[in-house]
Structure formats: C-alpha cells, structure tokens
Amino acid sequence: MTTLLPDAPLAPAASLTRPRRRLGRVARVTIILAVVALAVIIVSLWMGTVSVSLWDTLRAAVGIDTGTGADFIVGQLRAPRVYTAALVGALLAASGALMQSIARNPLASPDLLGISSGAAAGAVLCIYLTQNTSSLALAPWAVLGAMVAAALVIVLGSRGSIEPFRLIIAGIGIEFVATAATTLILTKIPDNIVPQAYAWIVGSTNARTWEHVWMGAASCLVILPIGLFMVRRLRVLEMGDDLAAGLGLRPGRLRFVALVIAAIAAGLAAALVGPIAFIALVAPAIARRITRSPGITVAASALMGAILTVAADLAARELLGSIQLPVGLYTSLIGGPYLIYLIVRSKGQFQ
Amino acid sequence: MSSAVPATEATPNTESRLAAEGVTLAYGDARVVHEVSLEIPPASVTAIVGPNGCGKSTLLRGLARLHSPASGTVLLDGKDIHERSSKDVARELGILPQSPIAPGGITVRDLVGRGRTPHLKALRPWQDSDTRAVNDALKATGLTGLAERSVDSLSGGQRQRAWIALALAQQTELLLLDEPTTFLDIAHQYEVLDLVHGLAADGRTIVVVLHDLAQAARYADHLVLMSAGLILARGNPNDVLTADRVRAAFGLPVTVVSDPITGTPLIVPTGAPAGRSIPTKEIPA
Known about the structure:
The structure holds 2 protein chains of 2 kinds.
Chain A: H1 13-17, H2 25-46, H3 54-61, H4 70-103, H5 115-130, H6 135-156, E1 158-159, E2 161-162, H7 164-188, H8 194-198, H9 210-237, H10 241-246, H11 251-273, H12 279-291, H13 298-318, H14 327-345
Antiparallel strand pairs in A: 1-2
Helix pairs in contact in A: 2-4, 2-13, 3-4, 4-9, 4-11, 4-12, 4-13, 5-6, 5-7, 5-11, 6-7, 6-11, 9-11, 12-13, 13-14
Chain B: E1 18-27, E2 30-40, E3 45-49, H1 56-63, E4 71-76, E5 79-80, H2 86-90, E6 93-96, H3 108-113, H4 128-140, H5 156-169, E7 174-178, H6 186-201, E8 205-209, H7 213-219, E9 222-227, E10 230-235, H8 237-240, H9 243-250, E11 254-258, E12 265-269
Parallel strand pairs in B: 3-8, 3-9, 6-7, 7-8
Antiparallel strand pairs in B: 1-2, 1-4, 4-5, 9-10, 11-12
C-alpha cells in the first residue's frame, strides 16, 4: 500500500482516470447484492430432499395455494426457515456494521462484544424460569439480556463518553461473563428441555415457523431504516470525534444511540435463532470491501448478511444429507478462518 | 493567493466575533489553561505558539466548543458558545483538529463533501449549493484536478490541503486549525501556510496553532505566546518574540535575528551542540 514516491503522478492510474459516474459504486454493488440475495433465497427454497418444481416453489413461497406437496414442503417447512435466516442475517449484519463503525475497529461485532452472549444468557434464563422455549416468549428476555450486556459495555467502555478502544476491552470481558452465565444456567435446566435450551449455545434455524418470520420482518422494518438514517453521520464520526463535533455532530450521543440500536438488533436476532456466530463480523467487512465504501454501509451489509446466513443454512440442511447440523456451526466454520485471515493480512495495520 | 510574503498590517474593519473571557480549561482535575482572556481579531491570521503541553491546542479546542470550560466563557458573536447548539456553531466556525482519520479509499471530493454536514438535514438532502461549496473549496485549495483521486494516493501536503478544503466547504468565516503543518516537509509546510494566509486575505478569520516560531512570525498578523497555561504575550510578532520571552516560555537560551526575507523575528538558539565550539564572533549582539 505504501508508495515510495508519493508525488509520482502515475501512482494509481485507475483511480486517476475513472470518470465521475451517475450511480456510485456503493449503490451499484448494493443492487447486485439484492439480486444475489433473492437468487440465494429462491435456490434455498427450491433445493431439498423432496423435489418440487421451481414454479410451484415460487408460488408456494409467497403463499399461493398450489394444490401440490409444495404447499407444505415449501410453504410450511422451507419458507419460514429460509426467510427467518435471511432476516436474522440482515439484523446481525446491520448490528455488526454499526458496532464496527462506532468502535472504529473491523473486529467489533455483537458476538465479540458480548452482546449476543448477553442475549443468549437472557433467553436461557427465561427457559430456566418459565420452562417456555418459544421464540416469542424468549424475545423480550433475549433483548433484555442484550441490553444489559450493552449497558455494561457502555458503562465500562466510557470515560465521560464512549471510547472505542475501552469499548472493545470491556466487550471482551462481558463476553466471557455472559458465556459463563449461560453455561451455568444450562446445567440447572431440567433434562427434558435441555435439547431446546442447548440451541442457545450454537444458533439453529431448525423448525422455524411463520411466527418467526413475522417477528424478524417487524424487527428489520424498525432497525434497518434507523440504521440507514444514521449512516451519513456515522461516516463522519469515523473520521474522529473532534472533526465530527466540529461539523456539528454530537459524538457521544450518536455513538450511544448506534450502540443501543445495534444491541436491540443483535438481541432480536438471537431471540429468533440463537447466537449465530460471525455473520455480524464477516458480512459488514465483506460488504465494505466489495462496495469500497469509505465508511459504514448498512444496506449492503444487511444484504450480505442475508446472503451468508441463507447460504450457511442451506449448507446446514443439505451438505451432510440426513445429518442436520446447526447453522451456527457452519457460520463459525466460515467465520473463524476469515477472522484469522483478517488478522494475518492486516498485521501492523490495527491502530 | 500564494504570495510568499504576508502583509504585516491587516486592517481589521469589523468587530471580533470570537473571544475567550477568563477561560479555564481542565482535563479532570488537571488544569491546562488558566483564566485566559483573548479576542480574536477578524479577517487576519492569529497564531498560537508555545512549548509542548502549554495548553495551546486545548485553548483552540475550547474556542471551537470542543472542550467545555471549567470556568469562564467563550463568546461567539457575543453569546456563550455553549448556549448554542453544536450544529449552529458549526455553521459559523470550522475547526480542523489534529490527525483526523481519512476513511480508506475515500476520494478527495467525498472527503471535502463531508464538510457540508452542518448544512444537511434529513429532509434536505444534497443540493446544487452543496456541490458549489465543494467546488469552491477544491478550487481555493488547488485540488480541482485531484478531486476524483483517492486521498490515500495524495502527498502529505495535498492531503492537508484536502482537510483544509473540507473545513472550507463548511463555509464558515471563522476557521481554527490545530497544527496543520505537523508531519509535513518544509516545502509542504509553506504550501499550507501560504494557503492559510490567502484565506485570511480573502476575509476569513484564522486561528492556527503552530510549532515553528519563525513560520508563525512570518505568517501571523497576531501572535499569541503561551506558557504553562497562560498567555505570556500577544500582539505583533515583532513585539511578542523577544529573546527574554522565548527563553521564559521554552527554557531555551536564544537570540532573535531578523528574517533576511521578511524582516520578521527569527529565533536562533545560543547554546551549541555538545562538543562543538561556538565561533563567538558570529553571534549577533
């Protein structure tokens, strides 16, 4: 990346001569991602052990009565699962994008800052206290758990206002505590509901229903517009607190609001499918790389999150035939190496 | 715009818009600036100089509403700057802080465009007037031809000009710059200083924190010498920079000679590097 002769007129020829475009690269890539997301969703609805024609799949997927087996296979089994995966992926990626922006660090995400673990702890606590394992019943607890974790991260990560580096250190601490709490509560849960509760260790999209889809859709409808609304300010905040304040923004308040939104998004995602790892970390990083956006991108991140989660869910369903592994395992299998790649590639670049 | 030799007397024809009245600035319990009062003369360059840790950058941040005074008030147009909203102030006063972060891959035009932030609202998106402000800022900083280049690919001097262009796009009459020449080689330092001087000549009020005393003396209409959180002296650079004052502020024995080009004060240390003899005849009286 370093140029020996910074003044050399020929340095990066590509960016020198590229003319001004009508539609920016970010917008074009976002549109392409939307198309890819739709394609991945359709493929995932269509593929499976029971074969269904593409036409019936498409109709059943939007609730049209086909009078064939597709009504059940696609309409009741696959569609809720696939749609939930897409919506959860979008929520997680938006959450990660917000956190990476306010922490000014590509490693910040709800999983690494303890927010997802806080949500899991809240959900497991709910199962322990009420013996109820339905997502709708768990949702408030998961969101509450995420909020408590976020509040602790904010308090511990602030000195007057939130400081990006302190935030990450505090988050790592909370992550350990929340994970330990989840494990502790799991040991106290009656044997008969342990399998359901165990899904809170590794996220799973198994057996989702339309109830999950509606909850996910409502969550996205609230979270994503707020995230999009904040993008312009967050991009300025990424340039430094003093610069942002000099341009009339309030860095502390902005960071606080963004973190609360990110925590709610992560909590809702966790309530729907459990703590799916790495989507929140990887999706915004990939989105930023391929859009070459100078700063946070919420729309592209959300679409990338949907694509990755639906793809991982498809792999979880189909890759090993009859053995269905939880989707969180696959995202970890992709995300872990990616994280290592990020660190190896950017050695010395983390400020 | 880029006259190498600045005019020594700027005639302020309007009233001062920015002033500090008995301002004390502190980080926690550590007081950095002690009850400083200062009026910023309009349409000219005011340079703040002083040793490391003397509170010059803190004072600048205080003047820009980035740091709330522990006591005293900063007045913008006669009103307490902290009684006005951050956005309101940002339309009147621009500040370029030390080491802002350029987002990876951002173009010069995008970077400068972010200076329009205080003028944008949720329901008032980007307009032609914003594009015009950006184009004017690019032109004033000589960056029009580099507008579509990535900021990463610019030289240090060009990059600093891009940051100044961002502040210019903000379209404020008051412009505060915190050490804009740091990390630049000598040619780029003068490139930036010439630009700053030109801005004042166009009627802007500039406050700039500088490290190099000779440069400050050369380019400032008004010099503020700080030491240990206090203003030691202020006024015309020729009057402010005496050998005694510089020694008092920096603890360095110096003699002051006249800059052969501009006639402004030039600070020369009288101590010799260890082990080298001093040819005494060359020290001016």
